[in-house]
Specification:
Layout lengths: L29 H14 L6 H15 L19 H7 L7 H9 L5 H10 L4 E3 L4 H6 L5 H8 L11 E3 L6
Antiparallel strand pairs: 1-2
Helix pairs in contact: 1-2
């Protein structure tokens, strides 16, 4: 989230976002943020939040993949708590169709254009076969070459945790 709550590990007082069903076995790279935070802390102790590091890293990732750049407003504060249930009720399902996604984002005050931008950013990296198998084997509105390339790593059954890129330009 915008407050880096996704970085928090579960504690005795809350179950966080890392282990929420929408994120488990999906969201990765925490060690990269830990490493950046350690370096920044060695130069500027207590000044830069993990939330700002995440925001800058997100922007830089988009730029590295050939997308646009933008000025990142800094000054976010890190969360001290997180909610697995909030994630499970607010993150749209990867199985939603276009109309459901538009409706889901509209409920949060976001336009279809904003939904496309946020969803497109989520194609950077990899996803588990479990989350897209139905589409590559059953839908006809997907580029056939791309679907075939995904099938090579994602069999019609099994291999749920196999990872594949959702964008042909992603490594």
């Amino acid at each position: 989230g915008c407050d880096a709550s996704v970085l928090l590990d579960d504690t005795s007082s809350f179950t966080g976002e890392k282990s929420a069903s929408a994120n488990v076995n999906s969201i990765r790279g925490f060690e990269v943020i830990d490493s950046v935070k350690s370096e920044v802390e060695s130069l500027c102790p207590g000044v830069v939040s993990c939330a700002d590091i995440l925001a800058v890293a997100a922007r830089d990732s988009v730029v590295a993949f050939g997308g646009p750049s933008w000025t990142v407003q800094l000054g976010r504060r890190d969360s001290t708590t997180a909610s697995s249930s909030a994630v499970n009720t607010n993150i749209p399902s990867p199985l939603m169709d276009l109309n459901d996604l538009i409706s889901n984002f509209a409920k949060k005050g976001l336009s279809a254009k904003e939904m496309v931008a946020l969803s497109g950013a989520h194609t950077i990296g990899q996803a588990r076969c479990l989350l897209f198998r139905q589409r590559i084997y059953n839908e006809t509105n997907i580029d056939s070459e791309f679907a075939t390339s995904l099938k090579s790593n994602c069999p019609s059954s099994g291999g749920d945790d196999n990872l594949s890129s959702l964008d042909a330009t992603s490594p």
